[in-house]
Amino acid sequence: MEYHLNDIVQLKKPHPCGENKWRVIRVGMDVKIRCLGCRHIVMLPHETFIKRLKRILPDEQPKN
What we know:
The protein is mainly beta and 64 residues long.
């Protein structure tokens, strides 16, 4: 599954705040994601992120 910077992704398990949507804010050997509910930032190794990734959601913000 191909993901890019600023994509909104859904992971297999929700964040403790209850939100299940994350925005990708850094891509590389590690992937940094921000919870769209509480804005908490988590950095995961690439392999762990791929295992936890459920799907890539369409962007909710219009691109200008």
